[in-house]
Design goal:
Number of helices: 16
Distance between the termini: 67 Å
Domain Ammonium transporter AmtB-like: 9-410
Transmembrane segments: 12-31, 38-59, 103-125, 132-154, 166-188, 200-220, 232-253, 260-280, 286-306, 318-342, 362-380
Number of strands: 2
Protein name: Ammonium transporter
InterPro entries: Ammonium/urea_transptr, Ammonium_transpt, Ammonium_transpt_CS, NH4_transpt_AmtB-like_dom
Organism: Streptosporangium jomthongense
Length: 436
């Protein structure tokens, strides 16, 4: 098929937008941490870009989006026909009639894999060894993300059943949220958790990161239509609606509960609305996006407090926002789906559909969350027992930026421990020893 230049141009743009989301996430997460760990937090996102890109080129696309010759095996993992992406090079277009080069589609899906891995990092801020994290990103992407992407999007068993996920509520957000929960339980709580204030150190950075995430999410959601058409426009508009309503709903809950509407709240509410609309953006009417955004903002604002009740240290609320928001969005399709795609199953209950799609939208999150949690637990335990996943308590108290990277995000003078070598901008690339 001849390449469609309009579709291809849009998908190249959407791919760049989604890639921008990972640096945006780095800023968002970095501002939410303490000053002594901002660089490490941002480095974890950038490391994900490096490792996942390499894995994707070598075997990732092939395992997620090609078919296996054995039908039973193909239900769970793809084939090996696109190792190294060599078979995608050239003018070959996808077989779905979109007129998009296969390599462009692969690049688009790569950016989804990157940010899914990066999302997990927020749960273990301040306390993960950087080398162990780098190893984790490569292993987790290979044995968790790639199979799940194949199940839901690549022709696997959940796809065949009719589980719908327009842009990644299940594959990205529930997957990352469940993994984050497992990782927090393996690494344990930060030193001083619940006894010491661990507030965001730079809220302007948080707002900047949230703005970049919001901007990039239009490529994330509208780009997932893989075409320039009315459904892409619907996904675009629903994304804006849910983000705005989610931000407002979070602020209302904050004001009623705490007496204050905060900048962190508006940023978190917008992200919660974006997460929840992701699986539904191309399937629901705009009024449905209002409902989804409102429910996500209110529920996630309450859910982030569960970590204190249940005793797990999810530092940046990955579970409360991404897993909870992803589940809300995925399940909402069972009620609000108005535009089923690919002839699968039918509409939601409020549009005359039966219970079948609702059951499928419950099955997808349950299966993916259980698989991601269990396998992540095993991966993290193995890494912890072999190379060690958590930094030492003294290093954590001193600050992971200094002890792991010999850098600081800010020129803090002599507030750090004596004898620590720190690289400063004034040193022009040389090391400077700082004494307290």
């Amino acid at each position: 098929m001849k390449i469609d230049s309009g579709t291809t141009a849009w998908m190249l743009t959407a791919t760049a937008l989604v890639l921008l989301m990972t640096p945006g996430l780095a800023l968002f997460y970095g501002g939410m941490t303490r000053a002594k760990s901002v660089l490490n937090m941002m480095m974890m996102s950038f490391a994900s870009i490096v490792t996942v890109t390499v894995a994707w080129v070598l075997y990732g696309h092939s395992l997620a989006f090609t078919e296996n010759g054995n039908g039973i095996v193909n239900a769970f993992v793809g084939g090996l026909d696109a190792l190294g992406l060599q078979s995608l090079v050239g003018t070959a277009t996808k077989a779905d009639g979109t007129g998009m080069p296969s390599l462009v589609y692969s690049a688009f899906q790569l950016t989804f894999a990157v940010i899914t891995v990066a999302l997990i990092s927020g749960a273990v801020a301040d306390r993960a060894r950087f080398g162990a994290w780098v190893l984790f990103t490569a292993v987790w992407a290979s044995v968790v993300y790639l199979p799940v992407a194949h199940w839901v999007w690549g022709g696997g068993w959940l796809f065949d059943l009719g589980v719908e996920d327009f842009a990644g509520g299940t594959v990205v957000h529930i997957n990352a949220g469940a993994a984050a929960l497992a990782l927090t339980l393996v690494l344990g709580r930060r030193v001083g958790w619940r006894r010491e204030p661990m507030r965001p150190h730079n809220l302007p950075l948080v707002l900047l990161g949230a703005g970049l995430l919001w901007f990039g999410w239009f490529g994330f959601n509208a780009g997932s239509e893989l075409a320039v058409d009315g459904t892409a426009g619907l996904a675009f508009m629903n994304t804006q609606i849910a983000a705005a309503v989610g931000a407002g709903a979070w602020l209302v809950v904050e004001k009623a509960r705490d007496g204050h509407a905060t900048s962190l709240g508006v940023a978190s509410g917008a992200v919660a609305g974006l997460v929840a609309i992701t699986p539904a953006c191309g399937f629901v009417d705009p009024w449905g996006a209002v409902v989804i955004g409102a429910v996500a903002g209110a529920v996630c604002a309450s859910a982030v407090g569960l970590k204190y009740r249940l005793g797990f240290d999810d530092a940046l609320d990955v579970v409360g926002v991404h897993m909870v928001g992803g589940v809300l969005g995925a399940v909402s399709l069972g009620f609000l789906a108005a535009y089923p795609l690919l002839g699968q199953q039918g509409k939601g209950l409020l549009y005359g559909g039966g219970l079948g799609q609702l059951g499928l939208q419950l099955l997808g999150p349950i299966v993916v969350a259980a698989y991601s949690f269990a396998v992540t637990w095993v991966i993290a335990k193995i890494i912890d027992r072999t190379v060690g996943f958590r930094i030492g308590a003294d290093d954590e108290v001193t600050g992971i930026d200094i002890t792991s990277h010999a850098e600081t995000g800010y020129d803090l003078g002599t507030v750090h421990a004596s004898g620590v070598t720190v690289r400063t901008p004034a040193a022009s690339g040389t090391a400077k020893k700082v004494d307290a």
